[in-house]
Design a protein that fits this description.
The protein has helices spanning 3-26, 45-53; strands at 30-34, 40-44. By secondary structure, it is of the alpha+beta class. The mean pLDDT is 94.
Amino acid sequence: MSEEDRKKLIKGLEMSSYKTLRRKAMLNENVVQSDETGEMVVVPAREVFTKLYNEPVP
């Protein structure tokens, strides 16, 4: 895989993650994350989205 292809793949994955999290935040859904000890926790997608992207949820 060329460096250009790798960059395109990474950009596509980033956009997909952004869109998925944004959609979940708009629908007031939760996401599962791991905490600092590795335990799984359920958190509001709205909270994660605003922290990661510093954008309000539409």
